[in-house]
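Technical appendix A lists one of the benchmark inputs used to test multi-chain prediction within the project. The record comprises two sequence entries:
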Amino acid sequence: MTRIFRHSAVCALAGFLVLAPLTGCLFEPRTPEAPSTVSVQYLPKTSPSNAWANLERSLINTHAFGWEDNIVPEGNDFIYLPDTNADEQFPGIFATWDRAKEVNFIGNLYDSGVSITAKLRNDEFIVPDPSGTVVVWEGVVYDLTVKTGDSSIRYRGRAIITFRLVANFWYIAKWEDQFGESNPDNEGQILPTMGVLRGTFGSK
Amino acid sequence: MPRGHVTPVLVPGLVLWLAVTGALMAHADPNSAAADTLSAAAADSVATIQSAAVGGAAAVAQAAVQGKTTDTALEAVPFLTKVSHEPKAGVQADVRQYKYYGEDITTLTFREGAFKNTLNWSWEDYRKQQKTTENRSSQFNYGTGKMLPFAFNMNGSWNWSDDLTTNTVGYTNQSRRETKMLTASASPAKIQMGALTNSFKTIFELNDQKSVNQNQRNNFSELALSGGYQAGLEVADGIVLVGRVYGKTTSGDRYLGDSSSQSSASADSTGFGVYFSRGVGTGRFEVARSNMDRQYLDFRKNSNGLIDTVGLAEEEKVVQELETKDAVSVEFQNTFKLSRTSLSVTLGRDTDDQDYRVSRIGLKKRRQDRMNLTWSAKVGRDSLALSYKYSWKWDDQRIKEATAFRGKQFAKGRDFDMTWERPLIERTRMTFRYHEGLTQDIAENLYNQNDKDRLLTDTSLRLNREWPNLFRTSMIFSYKQAQDLSIRESRSSNNNIKDTYEISPTYLWTLSPWLTLDQSYQIFIQYTDYTYSELEAVGRSDNYNKRGNLSTKVTINPTSRLDVIVQHDYNKRFNATRTKTDVTGRSFYNKDQIQAINKVDLAIRFRATPDVTFEGATYQTRDAKDLLGSVEATTITHSGQVWVGVRVNKKWGKTRPLEVNAVVKKYNAYGPAVRETSADYWEADVWMKWSF
């Protein structure tokens, strides 16, 4: 008798717990303000070049949504490999880098009161046609400047980017920084890569 | 500092350290202290208490009985019992780099304790860039075993690396680094004083680095001494109180760029914990506090901690920094188990203040509260698990020379998860999962515009059915909703809600012991609704995306030596944009793009002998894409890859074995995105090892 009661109680509890969440009201997000300005116009992620362009727009507008939405969705592996200089400057940080850390990094960067100018693809880079479900861009040179108050720091690096088709859209799945590029205004000065930004803001 | 400068410091340092072994230092590095966690120490203490209480008397009695036999046995065993070497050499290659490497492991086994030294060398040449690296290293460790009345361990390492990287304009940077590290630790045997169990540990460390990168040197040579004391007291059956103090002091010299200065650090931590295991409940309550101050040379940094030396004179690029940090953490954890029900609760709070004297980072304050509740039960055939997580944290910053804090950046997270498992009918099992999580970013006083909420809802139902050794099926229904909402008006135009539906039936059919058929079908539909798409200025259109995927895999094992896998994936998808919604609420979409991807895979493996296996694989992909709309276009691309290889593992001899291992594969690939370096390359790992 007791066993039947316990069994029924668990079934009732499970039924309640199944039905309650289906109403989707356990947590309630805040009501957003209606948009006052046209903010960021992202491109549909139907090609790797669109996904890459969206990262640039995300940087320029310090809009975390654009970054999070264009790297592989949750449940997929995101890999970041730093260049030697960034790896030496932040030992141990990148060994376990994953999507959650990438999202945390970009949120921390944007929340720190920075303004950014960015060009994530050099003019000489020839964009390969996508084919199949994986595309690799070798040797794309990105260039961005991060301003904070009276400080302005330029980051310029050469990277190998791997895009992956997940469900219907292209996402950045792997970012490998090869080396820091020279400052175009002073070739003897090697600029840091985004690995330094990731190391600084990803470890906060 | 000249390289030999460390040695005169090392000897008196070691002497000093040995002199104070067993005594306690009042300073500690909180980072090191954090690794030496209170709970680990407490567990150790509890184990000691239990050992002393339960097995102590028996052990003493046994030692008394065996004493003579043990002494006789020790005399018969030589001091050095075994010397062994394991030289190894190999070469690796892949699409990224070539690597040549060598290794030698020397092990000296003593009557008590052992010494192990590992020498490594490697040289790497990168294929996709002008970069070479050379690494040399040596590590040793030595432990005295039971030779001394206390446990003594020594570890040392030497690492040398040289990295030459040439960038696009032909500028070559050399990054060279040499580090030496020596650590010695001593832990006297635990001392039982009445009901109190006491344990001590002291550690001596030497760290030395010579480094040059971008013509900037970064050298340091530092000695550190640390010590800890822990006491445990079993106040009642199953209840143990543990207290701990830990301290560390460091001093040395640092050279950065053209500057040099002395460096120092001191830190301490104290902790207290109550650990209990009584009846149906086990758990702990811990409090830990740590302080640290560190003086060192550092590059000038901006308020975000980024090196900012552009435009500065050489002497202004490096500063003498003083960093201080104070931290407190409190945690309570309890697990209650009764019959087939379990309830676990974890509550915690962490706070810390970090201050920089020179850097524009200034003062940073952080605080985090967390709670984790987990309940699970098994009743009859049902199994239910619920969990709720809550976290609330903030950080604030008073930038150097600012008069006020910038405002707190809050991050709040709540997460609910439920899993219900139940067998439905014979050999058929149902798993239902519901998950809902909300994360919120909130900037106090709107110091930035990045307030945002993300609500994820995830429901899935999985049915599994098995016919033993013959047929296995599964069916997955899944619904996910993601709401990405920026709160501020300057960011909210991209707010959207994504609804995703997925149905995926699969089966695995074992037609015969040598033939299996695995087929799955997946349909995926995603609607993206932009919250403000009706506003003309927003310029976002809702969209609809659908994908169907049929995957068929045949595995054939005609003989015990041969495996063949043939797989075909057919993938059709389209993306569409909403054009209008009629008065009844029906939405109409226009297709923008239709894509069909066909991929055929073939993989073969043949075990020619027990030591040699031949293998190979190939795939071919056809990707057809139709762009619709005002400009219509069709593109068809082909890509593919083929590789063949051999795997060999052979060992000769038993007492002094010589082992050869080789995996060699040749890759050829084609396709619009395949570059020269990826079109034709070797993947290999070949090594030879001799043990004697």
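DSSP finds six helices and seven strands in chain A. Chain A has one domain: 43-202. Comparable benchmark entries are summarised in Table A2.
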